[in-house]
Amino acid sequence: MFTGNPFAELSAYIASGVAQAYVVVMFILVVAGTLIDVIHKKSAKYFFEDWQKSNSEGTKRVGGGEVVSMAVQTLASEVLTSSEFCAARRRIAHLLTMYGFVAYVVATAVMVFGYPTSSSPTPVVWPILWHIGALMVCVGGYWFWFFIRVDVTAEGYSPFRIIRADLFILSLLASTTLALAWSWIPTSVIGWLIFGLYVLATTILFGSIPWSKFAHMFFKPSAALQKRVAEASGSRSNLPAPADKPESFGKARGLPQNY
User: Fold this and answer.
1) pLDDT 10s digits, 197-250
2) Model confidence pLDDT, tens digit, residues 154-199
3) Rg from Cα positions in the chain
4) For residue 167, what are the contacts with CB-CB under 8 A and spacing of at least 6?
């Protein structure tokens, strides 16, 4: 199961060109959906205007070299290690999901385009990476869904309560879970049913970007970089300088539970 390329096995029943065309369409949906989201929410306009405002109201001019340095720091901190999450559980779950998703998508693209049929043997590293990536998404995603979500842990809602903001995480979990199930039984009747659901979940994942939180993965690094630039320029986005941390007495406050 973990060492076989399920897309190469699929080519015996569906032409590899169909799978490749599907991946291309999903990529186009990601680009188009992100652009639609940017235009609709005016995110790019907001960041551009905020950047100009920081430069005009700041007490110090931030040079190009400093901006590049802060961009590297943002990449190393907020992007690669998710340092904006203070809670260790949330941070670990997010990193598992993020790196698992990246591994899953990259391995999918390599296997679909580089080794589309059984006539071109797939290096074992790619199927293993594909399966491990999907498992990481499942571990991080289900952990977040059932045990970390604020409306579940703090507000006492049922973990099965669904709102539109949950579209991204649910379609992502459905895609990776069904992918693992399909790779286990790819050619049986049940396997074909699971494959159809896998395609449906994946299409929803990449086709629902304007209505889900998928595009925020592109906005968050920009917002983190803008925050660093605003602090370096002295404008602080019109916010006051941080105060000294107040002294605390008694035992530390625990996690909120169904207040």
Assistant:
1) 999 999 999 998 887 777 666 667 777 777 777 777 666 555 666 666 655 555
2) 666 777 778 877 888 999 999 999 999 999 887 778 989 999 999 9
3) 22
4) 204, 208, 211, 212, 213
Q: What is the pLDDT of residue 162?
A: 80
Closest CA to 111 of 6, 191, 220, 217: 6
Residue 55 belongs to some domain of the structure: no
pTM here is: 0.77
Tally Cβ neighbours within 10 Å of residue 195.
Answer: 22
DSSP 29-82: HHHHHHHHHHHHHTHHHHHHHHHHHHHHH-SSPPPHHHHHHHHHHHIIIIITS-
Domain contains 15: yes
Give dist(CA 169, CA 144) in Å, integer.
9
Q: Is residue 47 part of a domain?
A: no
Please determine, for residue 259, whether its predicted confidence score (pLDDT) is greater than 50. no
Angstrom distance (rounded) from CA 202 to CA 106 = 15
Residue labelled with tokens 């790196």: 99
Q: What domain range includes position 133?
A: 6-36+87-215
Question: Is 228 a member of any domain?
Answer: no
What is the three-class DSSP state of 123?
coil
Domain count, the chain: 1
Q: Check residue 59 and give its pLDDT.
A: 65
Q: For 93-175, where are the E strands, in sequence order? A: none
pLDDT, tens digit, for every residue of 74-89? 777 777 777 777 678 8
Could you give phi then psi for residue 115, rounded to 5 degrees?
A: -135, 65
